[in-house]
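Sample entry (172 residues):
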Amino acid sequence: MDIKDHIRGIPDFPKPGILFYDISTLLRHGPAWKEAMRRLAEVVRPHRPTLLAGIESRGFLVAAPLALELGLGFVMLRKRGKLPGAIIGLNYALEYGTDRIEMQADAVKPGDRVVVLDDLLATGGTLAASIALLRQAGAEVPAAAALIELTFLKGRERLGDTAFASLVAYDD
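Predicted structure, serialized as tokens:
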């Protein structure tokens, strides 16, 4: 099954000149979604994670069911101010300005092996910040994965020594 057949491109969203890769069509096709989760499980399992982390918000749709499939816990990585209780966070640079990624302070403990997941890897800034935040908390982050990679944006290069895999790549 070609997963790409179940992802649609929507031109000029969220602004003119952007081609948005919409995974809602994949999510609503049961057999294709199940196959995507099976393939991601094959990619993630060899890294022996103890937890999976998902990046807000579409990364939750990938990481949570995969954690369930693998019998693992799930950690939410969110934008500023979205989590209750004690949190830790990391500010990171965007093309224009800064952003912040946060998690609950007790979400990981030193030595946890966490694989980070998102729906799409573009420039890699948010994923790199997520990896840095988890490591700051004492976790090992052996790998990250996404459904889609926009290879022409070279986001993988920002991930340093963290292994990365995607199910689908777009070269332009």
